[in-house]
Structures are given as structure tokens and as C-alpha cells.
Design goal:
- With about 110 residues, the protein is α+β, with helices and mostly antiparallel strands.
- The protein is about 25% helix and about 20% strand.
- The chain contains three helices and six strands.
- The relative contact order is 0.21.
Length: about 110
Amino acid sequence: DAVEYGMADAAPVDLTIAEDFPLEDLRHFIKDFAAGWVGGNLITLTCADLKTLQAASKDPEKYGLVRVRMGGWTEFYPTSFPEHQDHHQRRPMVKPGRPDDKGYEIQNDDF
């Protein structure tokens, strides 16, 4: 019977937030996700600016502790495959602020 309840698998939504993302906006975003307003049933958030990721790609020794979230696991960004680094630099970015009737603003181009 336990299999009949809840979710056995997840549909991850991989998003990025800026390093200066306001804490109160993050609280609202997580509550809205939990309420089903954002979509998906598993969320992974990476807190990083595009400039930080680009700098970490160029100078991995200096940015060795930068970590990113992907599909439910954490990875050290500088040691990840170049294709994964490119993916993270193109990931959707959540913009701060409360959603209007259209939902949260999620930008899919440059951060």
C-alpha cells in the first residue's frame, strides 16, 4: 500500500539564483514551490552568478570550492566536465520578487 501514496520518482527542476538573491524572496519561492506553484516535484537550486561560474572555468584552483546542484546531487563546479559547466552557465535563472498571476520570472538566456 505504501507505494500507492506519495511519489516514487521525481521530476527535477534545475534552477539558479543570483548570489545576492534576497533571503525573503528565497523563503517565498521555496514555500511557493512546496505549494505546487512553481512546477516539478524536486528542485535543485544553485546560488551562483554567471561571472563566478565563468571565472571558475578559467581558474579552477582559485574557485575549487564552488559547488553546483544538478538533478539532486552536488558537484564541485571546477572539476565537472566542460559540458556540465556549459550547462550550468545556461541554466534558467530565477529572478527575485513575488510572482504575479503569470508566476515567477525565470530567465533562460544570460544571467
